[in-house]
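Tutorial handout. Part one gives the primary structure; part two gives the three-dimensional structure as tokens.
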Amino acid sequence: MTQTINPNTDTTDHNLDLASRLINNILAIKPLADFAKHQARQMIIKRAEKMGIEWRQESLKLRSHPWDEEMQAIHNPSLEYPDYYTCSFHAYEKGNLSWEAASEVEVASLSVHATILPEAGLEGDRLLRKSYHDIITAKITEPPQAIVDLGCSTGLSSFALEESYPQAQITGVELSPYFLSVANYRGKERNTQIKWLNAPAENTGLPDDCCDLVSLCLVCHELPQAPTRQIFQEARRLLRPNGHIAIMDMNPQAEAFMKMPPYVLTLLKSTEPYLDQYFSLDISECLINTGFQAPSIQSNSRRHRTVIAQVKS
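Part two.
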């Protein structure tokens, strides 16, 4: 991995840290935090509707579906949700544990990723995922035969993996039964062969050495550091010799974050409670300590990076 040394990095990081701490103090005041969440949500919805995405109609259509069959098919009633997972995420008070959140994942992805590539618009989400898989296929020359997609949400990442690796057996693992119910529903529409598993990414219950590739797509920034390390350990357990872990997420070193206006950063942090922990995580060191080789890290958008590491021999 080639890195460019920026003489202004220390100053930029210091200024960003000061702004971040100020914003944390603001968000510690609940009425201000609630206002920021509301503003962040409205900004995303307005952008979506400006592009022609019928946010409210699409969400209502999904919420009105009778979900009993999908929920019964995938829900693990013995699950105990970790404390970090039950807080507010993405301006939803119940976080990922609600039909409201599950019904808006698809439209939110279109809206949030509309600006990541020049003139991408509604193609932004697809192109972002494609850029991730293009890097994977370039780095991993032997196509994986079994893939575990950790934190698969409503299946968007799993379906994209299936398009890149149609020969592979894919298992999508997701803690939210609401999200996974939508994934199961969409999977039926697509006649997919993906298997869905309602389990925590830290402890999937899958057998040792069961896959060639573990993927985490837009997951790590939503985690404290401790469960991130546990998930990397679980990925190491699941991977066969010479297997790989692939991670696509926000790039803490991206100029887009370094120069983000304080107001926008406030809105972002109001919906991402563990962003500071993610930005301060040394992901290379963490992977190496878990039993992986030194990873390759490559930008795949102006805000995102792809990290790929192979199991140590």
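Part three, for discussion. The first helix runs from residue 9 to 27. The chain is about 50% helix and 15% strand.
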